[in-house]
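Sorry to interrupt, but I need a hand with the structure work. Go ahead and set the record down below:
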Amino acid sequence: MSEIVNQGDQTIVKPGMDIVASMAEDFKNELLSVINNSSAGVVIDLAGVEMVDSVGIGVIIAAHNTLNQSDRKLKVINVTKDVYGLFTTMRLNRRFTVEGV
């Protein structure tokens, strides 16, 4: 279960564990709940996350697309060097903000 913190014009979601296929469905449901129950932008704080697999990337892209439809922004912060490399290789840093540790 992710830690969810509302801070003014943004909601911070901290999964605290690797975003991989085995937990992706629960994480997706948490993100959708946050997106649907708020008009704020969403920040995914990847502190403590060492790995994001292709299913996890798909969940993050889906969250971005849903937010984008209502002119809200997604930001991913505290990204490890390896995960940051994955985001930049896939050019996701051009679609939403990605900040390393």
The chain is about 40% helix and 25% strand.
